[in-house]
């Protein structure tokens, strides 16, 4: 069964602006999630500089024994990454959909300040619906 464990949104300067935990095992506290976001931002930036291929946009997939980490970076430098089961397919599409939700419900919110933590109830609702819909779709594959 394919499972999405957590979702992170990191601003262009490496600050964690959104974190949502979807798994019951291995929950992280606030400090751990901040460290994870900072570490990922740094690894992503270093991978861009170390790449032997010009035009590299950083790490898009990190595969480990027990999880996969999929990342999508927007043109503004905001990074979205999902920690999920190993071998989970079609995460790129989910991350792009999450980015669309971010642009529709966060960036268009007149009360949201750029680069600040995301506290938009409608974004949370639509995000939960998208994750649940994707999880159900993954079960059918």
From TrEMBL:
It is found in: Endoplasmic reticulum; Golgi apparatus, cis-Golgi network; Golgi apparatus. Belongs to the TRAPP small subunits family. TRAPPC4 subfamily. GO terms for cellular component: endoplasmic reticulum; Golgi apparatus; TRAPP complex. Keywords: Endoplasmic reticulum, ER-Golgi transport, Golgi apparatus, Transport. It comes from the Eukaryota. GO terms for biological process: endoplasmic reticulum to Golgi vesicle-mediated transport. It comes from Rhamnella rubrinervis. This is Trafficking protein particle complex subunit. CDD domains: TRAPPC4_synbindin. The keyword Endoplasmic reticulum applies. Its main location: endoplasmic reticulum.
